[in-house]
Amino acid sequence: MNQELTVPRGADLATLDEIDTEDFVTFRTGGQLFGVSIQKVRDILNLDKIAFIPLAPRQVRGSINLRGHIVTVINVRICLGMPDYEPAKKQVVESEGEADGNDAAADAAAADAAADAAADADVVEISHVGVTVEYGPELYTLLVDEIGEVITVATRDKEAVPTTLESLWTKFARNVIQLDGELLVILDSDKLVDPGEHK
What we know:
Layout: H1 13-18, E1 21-29, E2 32-37, E3 41-51, E4 60-66, E5 69-75, H2 76-79, H3 103-119, E6 123-135, E7 138-144, E8 146-154, H4 167-172, E9 173-179, E10 182-187, H5 189-193
Parallel strand pairs: 2-10, 5-7
Antiparallel strand pairs: 1-2, 1-8, 3-6, 4-5, 6-7, 9-10
């Protein structure tokens, strides 16, 4: 559900058309509501597996294959100085040999399971969502907790980032918007994915 644009009493449709607005894709991370410009968003994804990238910066969670393109996944929690997600845990179910002498078959099944686990050692299994954004010719996916609504905001309702905001947040924030009982922090997706901004 899009947020309704409020029109002053007595305004006609011509006046409404003259009000500058911007659309944002919103999401929650660490309980806070954030948004990025819909102009930058290319996909909303369910992320089940993320491939590990050796020696990658801390904010890089890994990479995914998106319709044949390798896309880097950026952990928004790390960018904003929040606690990281709990490590994904894999559960291996071992088969027990049956009393009729099938121990060899059980051992073979266990060996196969161990080989599969080793092959998947560089793949992290998670259950999160991603917002894929454009950065120049490249695509990056922002790893977030949950997706919110697409909202339309009047340009006049955007406010400067307050100095009291968390210092890392101010580094990546463009504006803030006061919603009903909640502060929406608009993030600059270019800065979030730019490696130079994390030094």
